[in-house]
Design brief:
about 200 residues; alpha/beta; Rossmann fold; eight-stranded mixed beta sheet; two-stranded antiparallel sheet; 5 helices; 12 strands
Length: about 200
């Protein structure tokens, strides 16, 4: 497949690029600052989500767009505009965990002990999900990681959920960037979540 990854130089973005190439897909890696590499299957392009025309030109010709950016630094409506103009029909968003529920009707972000320093990123991430739920043109999916999201191993063993935070047997809610990338590429290759949020964790 031809997959465009916006934010390809970021922590999650790099792993998503690597997983896509591991599976033999052709990647258009989009970032504000072009990366480097010798992989002929990765084409780097410079574009900014704040410029929908430039972003549309960078994304055109792909089958899927992956958006892996910081929500606090992104005008999400403008970002969607660029994807729509590109003509690419499918969008997968690297989401956040704070909009997940810890019990029916109880969202993690709304709990009194939720850390204030995370809210500047978590609040617009939830707003982006709310906006997507009203999106009818793009076929989108929003993949929320677990609470702890960082570098680790690619095990290929994890669980999927919908709107409830996943917690492992050790009491932790966690997923590695590497296994997150596996789950996201699985969804690209065999779509199971159309216009829906889902989550991944151990």
């Amino acid at each position: 497949m031809h997959i465009a990854i916006v934010g390809a130089s970021g922590n999650a973005g790099q792993r998503i690029v690597a997983e896509a190439r591991r599976r033999g897909h052709s990647v258009t890696a989009v970032a504000r600052h072009v990366g480097t590499g010798t992989d002929a299957g990765v084409t780097w392009k410079t574009a900014d989500l704040a410029d929908p025309d430039a972003m549309a030109a960078a994304l055109a010709g792909n089958q899927v767009v992956v958006l892996s950016v910081r929500f606090g630094d992104t005008n999400f409506e403008t970002a969607l505009d660029g994807v729509r103009r590109s003509g690419v029909p499918r969008l997968l968003v690297v989401g956040g965990a704070a909009s997940l529920e810890i019990a029916p009707g109880k969202v993690l972000l709304d709990q009194p002990d939720f850390p204030d320093f995370i809210k500047p990123e978590a609040t617009p991430a939830r707003a982006a999900l709310d906006r997507l739920r009203g999106e009818t043109e793009l076929d989108w999916a929003f993949l929320s990681p677990s609470m702890m999201f960082g570098p680790g191993e690619r095990t290929g063993t994890f669980r999927l959920g919908t709107d409830m935070l996943l917690t492992a047997a050790d009491g932790q809610s966690h997923i590695s960037y590497e296994d997150y990338a596996v789950a996201l590429l699985d969804e690209i290759e065999q779509p199971r979540h159309s216009r829906a949020r889902f989550t991944v964790g151990y």
